[in-house]
Amino acid sequence: MTTITRAFTRLPLFAVAVALLFTAAAPSSHAQGAAAVPSKWQQGRHYRSVVPQMPTSVAPGKVEVVEIFWYGCGACYMLDPYLESWKKKDKPANVEFVRVPVTWNEGAKMHARLFYTLQALKQDERLHTKVFDTIHRGGNGLLGRDAESTLPVVRDWAKANGIDPKAFTDAWNSMWVNTKLRQADEIVRRYRAEGTPFMAVNGRWSTDINSAGGVPQMLELINTLARAEQPR
Description:
The chain is α+β, with helices and mostly antiparallel strands. The chain has helices at residues 3-9, 13-25, 29-35, 74-90, 106-120, 124-136, 147-160, 165-172, 175-191, 209-212, 215-228; strands at residues 48-49, 63-69, 95-101, 198-201, 205-207.
């Protein structure tokens, strides 16, 4: 007999019936959140429920918005200036924006390591867009033939952008960056993100540019979902 079954057998039958009634009648948190979203946004079409719900990494009282991205992704590059503008002008005050890089293959893993190395050095905000520009406009993929030959490529790029080479190398090889890479791999896997850019709101809802109907629509939808959420 399970623990739950044993607990119910100790209750009077009337109490069991009342407990079951309230359990059945209480709306789920997903249903409550969906009910607060205007009808112009259709769950299953414009956005989807994340099952099981994901934990968030933001401070209490904040709503997490995650972008799962890849530096080599043309659509992510196209989206980047819109996200930067949204962060400065349109992001709800209670929203905390978190970027998570994919680690699907060796090239993506090297780009993810670059992202977290810049984050460890507190240079990610300054140089995030520069990485995109270097790859997509400058034609420099910031990759070597393998992991070993990639380090001097990205270190030279970092030096040209004002970062001390030794500090960059230490961060690149650090336990902190290795831990962040493992966490990113787990987050992407649990969200079942199969393409980039992939957006998620508070671990409960996901969407993308195509589903929302375009970039402006997606950002409007993200704000709507975020405002409908109860901060954790």
